[in-house]
Amino acid sequence: MTEYQAFRVELKDRIAHVAINRPEKINAMNAAFWSEIVDIFKWIDDTDEVRVVVLSGEGKHFSAGIDLQMLAQAATALGRDVGRNAEHLRRQILKLQASFNAVDHCRKPVIAAIQGYCIGGAIDLIAACDMRYSTLDAQFSIKEIDMGMAADVGTLQRLPRIIGDGMMRELAYTGRSVDGQEAQSMGLVNRAYADQPTLMAAVFALAAEIAAKSPVAIRGTKEMIRYMRDHRVDDGLEYIATWNAAMLQSADLKVAMAAHMSKQKPEFAD
Question: What are the coiled-coil residue ranges (predicted)?
Answer without folding.
Answer: none
